[in-house]
# Entry
Amino acid sequence: MNSRHYRPSTDPMFLFIQEMKLRNLSRKTIECYRRYVDDCIRFASKSARGITGPDIRAYLSWLVENGKSGSTLNTAYSALQYYFERILHRKFFASIPRSKEPKKLPSVLSLGEVARLVSTTLNPKHRCIIQLLYGTGMRVGELVRLRMNQIDFDRNCIHIQRSKGAKDRVVMLPQSLRETLLNQLRLKQPTDFLFTNGRGGRLSETSIQKIVREGTIRAGITKPITPHTLRHSFATHLLESGTDIRYIQELLGHARIETTQIYTHVTAKAARTIVSPLDASMAG
# Structure
């Protein structure tokens, strides 16, 4: 390219996407943010530069009226704030409040339910997927991107690369899966994905969600279960077994300890061991 004739684009959406790429945001986040900005502009029926604070409020209110969750509202808010403040230099978000999200405790499986889920999953590949999700605390997106060369058999660990927030971390290699994964090492190339579909590409997140959903039905588990439930269960069971919460924070890849501390609210150990004052008074 001849730099003397280069003219940078002034299109706000191009600059928005470029800015997000430079910040190394994930492809999924970039697409999500772009979609909310496009949606807001269509809703307002104005040009991007003509949108005002009341237009943003009206769009967010419309999302509420259409039953969108607090999490969805705050994602839309972040996308719009990023676009209008960083790209168009508009400063009207100080008067627009974020949605207050209800603090819901995550659903967690018992140890018995995990054992039943694994034992009733007869397909070896599907069973390994469930075991890795629970045995490492990986996110489903991390699992589908896992390649053979990320498994370190000498150090008994798995390297998670470019995870949420573009961070790397290390999780344990469950010893109960060592032989299964070593067998895959003999069958695959180092850069191959661990889990592939029938066409040789990586398995999709949707496929794994279906595997977990069908597994819970076979196991007779009636709780609402997703692959992320296995991550919640991993963290909760480690905490119940006495693992320091800061180690759990590192294994999960949480940037803030406050995110990990939700598991102190779902652990059943405290509920089993702390004596109710009613029981104490009756015993006296």
